[in-house]
Amino acid sequence: MNVHATISLSYILFEKWLSGDVFALGCAQYLIAPLFSLAGRMMTVTPDPDTIITISRVTSEPDCSVCHNTVPKPTCNPRFLQLKDPTNTSVEFTCPQPQDVFGVEINREIGMSDCEPAESSLFPDFNRTFTWDLKVVSTRAFQLDFPEPGMQQISNEETCPDEHTYSLVTYLRTGPATIGTFCKGGTVTTILARYKGRLSLQVDIDDFLCMFPTKIVSPCFSPVVAIVKANLPRGVSDTDFITANYPRDFPDDQQMRWDFTVPGMHNYTMHFRDHTAPECLQKEVEVEYQKEGKKVTKLTLTDPQPEHQQGNFNMTLKNCQTNKTLQGLTLNYKVSVMRSGHPGTVIKHEKLLVKEKINVAAGTKASLSFLDCPYEDVRLTASKVIGCRNMASCHPKVLTLPKLDSCLRMPLHNFTWHLNIPQDGTVDLVSPTGSLQQFLPGQECNQSVSLHVAEADGFSIGSFCFNGVIKKVQVHANVSITATSKDFSKNRGPFLNVSFSQEIPDSIIYRVSPGISSPTLLSTPNWPEGMRPSSTISWIVTLPSQYQAHMQFVNISQPKCKDTHTAIKVQMLGQEEEIMSRREDEKTEDKLTVSQSFYLNMSNCAPESEKFGAVTKIVLQKKTNLLAILLGIAGALLLLLVVLAVVCIVTKKKKRDKMNKESSIYIGKGNIFRPGDMHFTKSRSENESHVYDSIDETMVYGHLLGDTSYADSMQDRFKGMQMDSYQTFTGPTDGELPVIKEPDHEPEMDQYKTFLDPSETFIPSRPRTPIDRQDSLGFQDRRMVENELYTFKTTGNINTIRLSGVDMEPLTEQSM
């Protein structure tokens, strides 16, 4: 079903929904929804006069077309659309992200005028190419003047870092030729080209763009493709230039010229870095040099070019008629400039020589003249050789800077120690601070001095600072150690402690003690270029107590080998079994946890293409002691059981003590109470429990009962019953003891109820006891029994205390 049919059907269903059909609305939504997901993008464009906008496809996917609202119906094209009419025009794309599918070229033909603003407001989010067509009569030439700081020439295949790449093309009879590709910021200030040319600018961001000023010049430079003018900078510099159409062939029978402005008191030197020579059918390839007011110097591509010359000059490259079936003419060269004075910089061997680099050997003397050069433009380096023939003659060394001649007023840039050892020896490098820190390319050492260690052939072992995790570096080869500093006057060493030991099984061994606070990165030597073929590298990693290491290969490249393999092995120290072994043809985890100090080894083969290298990250983590946790849990449970047992024992003992203290008495009639009951709600000071109606003298003077005289006097009164101590009432002896029913707990009352109604007591009534009333517990105050003090202020008759609520009849002698 096409789009128009879908819309028509949806409209019919929508009308049915208006008439009350709810199901019709759902169907309409189901049909229309996909159309919204395929919605395109529309924009309005108004080209300037003499401007052509070309929209062209740059990718094959996804499916998308660009449409133009032409009359009588829109015109759509999946690949191309061109707009020339300077009127308000609508452009529609059938996909939602057309900037990923199409590119835009905005072309304008201009005359000789000043700054021309580019159409930066058109298609701002598309990749755009702005082109300006420059055209003059055949007898004239046009000139482009670049503003400060000028332009820098690059290869035609390159792009600029700021993504603003300029390219200038001239149109010859033989076809277009690229004069050059340029970026902002360089030595090129002006370009002249004849007849017709095109300046292009590639951008992909919204920016205000401006054409460079142009003007017409004469006469016509018929044999010259272009003239490039460059102002060489002051100081020491190297500037690259290339021929037109580079790296393609230079046009036949054509010329190209460079005009160079050289600062005063500066020398220039020409270096032909790369060139190809054609087979000439007519004429020859020539290079001409000319200074103002002097004759032309003609050279070939293979002749020595000018060195250490002064003054402005121009160079012209002339091509011949070439054999088109063979390679053509190309040239890539460099112009070097340095400060100078009068010729002659070094007096040596009784001759005046001009040199860029001067080596003064140990034990020799040289007279130097720097020809008014600023000291900051001269770099001073020094080196020292330390060697031994056999291990017996290899003694430990401390690397420090020697004292240099005071006539050298420029600062020392770096100092290199060359360590030569016997074939069966090893160089051991240890920092005087105790450790070294290796830093990777792109990382800066924030210390005043950095050290670079390399083998004798220049193979890099690594760059180091102080105070890191590497305790020792052992190298089984001759090495060079270069110390670099901005100011050696503040630090002249010592930089390293060097000792010598017997041959090690590996090429290099690093002894490492990772830090706890931050991750440790270990990289293979010469990273990221890769290890030396057929070499082995080892790290002996020592872990702190109670810590384990989490190791991860964050960046690794293991190439394929012809006959052997690259390998990575991890093995705990003191154990023979490997906990990890990885070859390039095996897939293993990039992460590993090691519980103790370990040995990391990497061995390389002779790779076919890629180079073997790796960066390893080590993070320390405190070990989890499972045994201690289990013992702690068991101890806690045992302690809990002990506490519970103690609580149970104490609770049980308290209950037993309480039961022992509590005792009940049998009272046949009346209330039952136990000495442990607390029936008094008031304190002793607030109630009348301490007020007595009578006091039993036998209780007061009970301790005198043992006295015979007193006992005799009291015998008559107690009818012959003599008592030495208090006798506990044991209850009735005739028959079984009655079952005593404990009363329910009485609620607290405002006033304590001492007596009970006889109806509330036990039935039958309590039998009479055979003892005196005053000897019964019913007449004793239990609080006074527990009191050790049985003395009172006054004496008198016994005033008994009734503890029972039952009215008792007076006792007679018969009842006695």
UniProtKB/TrEMBL annotation:
Domain (CDCP1 third and sixth CUB): residue spans on this chain: 228-327, 507-618
Keyword Coiled coil: no
CDCP1 second and fifth CUB domain sequence ranges: 117-204, 406-491
Ranges for domain CDCP1 first CUB: 41-111
InterPro entries per UniProt: CDCP1 (IPR038811), CDCP1_CUB_3rd_6th (IPR056266), CUB_CDCP1_1st (IPR056268), CUB_CDCP1_2nd_5th (IPR056269)
Keywords, alphabetical: Membrane, Transmembrane, Transmembrane helix
Transmembrane segments: 626-651
Name of the molecule in the record: CUB domain-containing protein 1
Native source species: Dicentrarchus labrax
